[in-house]
Amino acid sequence: FTPVSLSGKHRSFTRCYAESGPPQYQKRKAVLRGSEVVGDGSVMLHIDHVHDDDGNDKGPLDYQPGHVIALEIQANGSIMDEKAAKDAQNNDGWMRGPYTITRSNENSFDILIKTVGTKSKVLASAAPGTPLRFGGKFKVPIAEGIAPNTDRIVMLSTGVGIGPCVGAVENLLSTQFAGSIDLFASFRSEAEKLFADYLNTLSSEQTNFRYIPIITSAMGRL
User: Fold this and answer.
1) Helix ranges, 90-210 (H)
2) Half-sphere exposure for 155 (CA within 13 Å, toward CB)
3) Which pTM does this prediction carry?
């Protein structure tokens, strides 16, 4: 996604990289509450934080749409490519990868994924109650990239990148954002279009929000 603030102001961004190897993070326990197919090859994961019995991890979650976290799931004999197998071997049998928060509260979060590789396919096919691990808080959430006093926000997304945009739109509307919000969402085909009914309804109910889907196979690229 690409959030754009049209107010004559802009904010700079700093990207952080680990000096050596993958970023380090506290591993926190979670469980898959459920998952749902929301489009062709796209799955929404609903994940609950599990507090440690020893009381070391009782704090609330503090994620916003656009934060990137590390999400882990046990390999458990899954057929893996060489990269995933090596990573699991180095991580006590847990596969891991970076995924973007769609929405979150103090106890749970949603992540929208595209099933394109070993990890995403294992996550998408996991049964409710499957143990997970997560941690870290990387990248800049969408809301923090919006300059103060902005009166118009334009969001551009492709594919499952619409996930954090939807969460950000929900948050902005819930806080009575007075400016206008336009969401241009690009998909390759009608079958891959996500959240169309929900966003069309939201657009009809909220006068300051517009949802504009782009189907590139029929309309060309943005």
Assistant:
1) 118-125, 162-174, 196-205
2) 29
3) 0.86
